[in-house]
Amino acid sequence: MSQQKLFNVAVVGATGAVGEQIIGLLEKRDFPIAELKLLSSARSAGTKLMFKGKEYTVEEATPESFKGVEIALFSAGGDVSKALAPHAVEHGAVCIDNTNAYRMDPDTPLVVPEVNIDKVNEHKGIIANPNCSTIQLVAALKPLQERYGIARIIVSTYQAVSGAGSRAIDELLRQTREVLDGNEVDPDILPVGSLPVKHQIAFNAIPQIDKFQENGYTLEEMKMVRETKKILDDESIDVTATCVRIPVVYGHSESVYVEFKNDYELEDVKNLLADAPGVVLVDDPAGQRYPLATEAAGKPEVFVGRLRRDLGHARGLNLWIVSDNLLKGAAWNAVQIAEYIAIEKP
Amino acid sequence: MSQQKLFNVAVVGATGAVGEQIIGLLEKRDFPIAELKLLSSARSAGTKLMFKGKEYTVEEATPESFKGVEIALFSAGGDVSKALAPHAVEHGAVCIDNTNAYRMDPDTPLVVPEVNIDKVNEHKGIIANPNCSTIQLVAALKPLQERYGIARIIVSTYQAVSGAGSRAIDELLRQTREVLDGNEVDPDILPVGSLPVKHQIAFNAIPQIDKFQENGYTLEEMKMVRETKKILDDESIDVTATCVRIPVVYGHSESVYVEFKNDYELEDVKNLLADAPGVVLVDDPAGQRYPLATEAAGKPEVFVGRLRRDLGHARGLNLWIVSDNLLKGAAWNAVQIAEYIAIEKP
Question: Exposed, middle or buried: residue A139 (CB in 10 Å: 0-12, 13-18, 19+)?
């Protein structure tokens, strides 16, 4: 057995909610690292972070930061990826980008390892990590698509605030305490930090994630529509999404209606999901067991349950899909791709 | 103008979450009351409640409680309605029942005043108030059904804990504080008080409201399916529901996909909803305005927004419907029916 090659790895956005999870996973998975660079905006540079018992100082990410870097994991927002990923590629790094910057670029593979890991081999320097709400959807639906074909998907999401970053988590907890104490709530971040109107998230449901597009859908909804088609590699699938933020810290839930191209048996579906990689079937109505955000939090899998036939359409199926949006929905999916590149790639 | 006749009114379940709202509305609306009887279980009997500045002592509801009662509003659970409503009818009362006991009874009208108030005239002593999640759905869809016809409805709900009663509200608030304080959570009520398994509702989304049926759907989901067809008076409509409890105190939200029988114009839909009785259109993506549970709480209307064409199906429309589940979803709908009987009925 040959010795494992070690890689120079950079984490861009190291102080963010996803960056923190990536660093934790690199440590936990004992990723083959030669040198680790933790990068951030100028604002967060200087932060001290621990990795395998050693203290690292976070540095400001600049084009020159990527000299010698072989694998760069980006999760510092689309603008940062757009500005810096090309420099990282120039320096010879493979970039795994967790933002929306390159996902729909035809030259960039959009990868969920359980679905289309082979696409990694087509990369031209950048591999895109899909949106959190898309990853758990396609991970659960892929085995069903292979068996029955998918005609349409209608999904309504119940998304955790951690998807909007650390400051949104702080905001939910702060607002919640204010409401419990009978104090005034002064929303500051959600639904979209860069937009003028803010809404209370504590004890509320906000049907806006990211900015509105001209067609009346939000960007988050359109991400789900476009990315699902790209990853499932079938532009003919009709996808409709309604994306909603709810007062949950970790774990996105999704109510999904899927219509297959062919007839199906419910028992078959259960067997397929029970055997699917990265998927855990939790489907026991009699025992009141179904996926829950609180139980998915901190776990890498995608949890699926509430499987039931549509009452009107013979090829329709309803299901409930839950996963930790920071893990499978972001950091873990990215680290899975990095592991493939570093360890498994043919 | 003739003098308004006054009625002997009984409120059964007077100490519950809905009963409290009914009493508040009877006062606020200056309902033509001769004598008011506040009734409850033996456990809550003796409670003192105020009505128009006068103190009332809640009495235990028995078959004899309804002597002389002309209008009885029931919201003390299905078993109480089943046991006592027939006695109330025998004593000559018209019962407006807010439970599931008689809703699907072919002899009982199931009424949402904005949709089918004329059905009240067919009653044989009992008029059923629909399930909260159904009421707001059909109130918003009725004007669209009239214009275009409805082929199918796929709805995912985001339901407030107050729908499960006062103790569920207490549970959410108590659990939330426990989580914020870093203490252990010990679920006691939700998802279903009478079932053995309990789940944390604080910072979670529970895809179970009421008991599971043999077909894998919950009773709440089947209520939405059956009641929607009955109220919209069209058994051919395909209805699919996924009902989810979220950490909200007041106000149910619904993500709704509807497919019309005929082509439609989005502007037309907006105009129809803007003019619909009891409906408020809140649909301004540019201004980040859409219905929110926090803004619907305490208001009698049904709020509708996020209107957008389905991207794949020309006759498909997505919308977001929010209403206060204790008001339009329960107490206000019941008092509207009572007002029709007492004041408007031809």
Answer: buried
For B220-236, how does the pLDDT look when each residue is reduced to its tens digit (9 = 90+)? 999 999 999 999 999 99
Select the residue of B195, B203, B306 nearest A247 (Cβ to Cβ).
B203
Rounded CA separation A281/A303 (Å): 6
CA distance A253 to chain B (A): 7
Is the CB of B208 inside 8 Å of chain A's CB atoms? yes
Q: What is the pLDDT of residue A2?
A: 61
CB contact under 8 A, A244 and B225: no
Closest-CA distance of chain B to residue A185, Å: 12
Asked whether the beta carbons of residue B156 and residue A156 sit closer than 8 angstroms, the reply is yes
Distance CA A13, CA A22 (A): 10
Residues of B in contact with A133 (CB under 8 A): none
Cα B24 from chain centroid (whole Å): 16
CA-CA-CA-CA torsion sign (B16, B302, B221, A136):
negative
Q: Which domains does chain A have, with CATH numbers?
A: 7-130+330-344 (3.40.50.720), 134-325 (3.30.360.10)
Residues in chain B with pLDDT < 50? 1
For residue B100, what are the contacts with CB-CB under 8 A and spacing of at least 6?
B78, B131, B219, B223
Contacts of B214 in chain A (CB under 8 A): none
DSSP annotation string for B78-105: HHHHHHHHHHHHHTTPEEEE-SSSSTT-
What is the per-residue burial (b if ≥16 Cβ within 10 Å, else e) of A100-136? Answer: bbbbeeeebbbbbbbbbbebbeebebbbbbbbbbbbb
pLDDT tens column, B107-126: 999 999 999 999 999 999 99
A191 prior amide bond cis, ω within 30: yes
- Of A73, A118, A113, A68, nearest to A95 by C-alpha is A73
Query: So which residues of B are the catalytic ones?
Result: 132, 252
Kindly provide the b/e burial profile for residues B142-155, where b requires at least 16 CB atoms within 10 angstroms of the residue's own CB. Answer: bbbbeebbbbbbbb
CB-nearest to B203 from A152, A294, A312 is A294
- Indicate the average pLDDT of chain B: 97
Whether the CB-CB separation of B324 and B300 falls below 8 Å is answered with: yes
- Which residue type, as a one-letter code, is found at position A338? A
User: What are A236's two structure tokens?
Assistant: 């003919």
Q: Does A211 touch chain B (CB under 8 A)?
A: no
Distances (CA, A) of A227 to A129, A134, A220, A230: 10, 7, 10, 5
Of the partner residues A204, A290, A308, the one whose CB lies closest to the CB of residue B292:
A204
Q: Are B187 and B198 in contact (CB under 8 A)?
A: yes
Interaxial angle between packed helices A266-275 and A132-148, expressed in degrees from 0 to 180 and rounded to the nearest 10: 120
User: How do residues A330-341 score in pLDDT, each as one tens digit?
Assistant: 999 999 999 999
Using CA coordinates, name the residue in chain A closest to B155. A156
Q: Kindly write down the DSSP assignment for every residue of A183-202, as one continuous string.
A: ------SSS-TTSS-----T
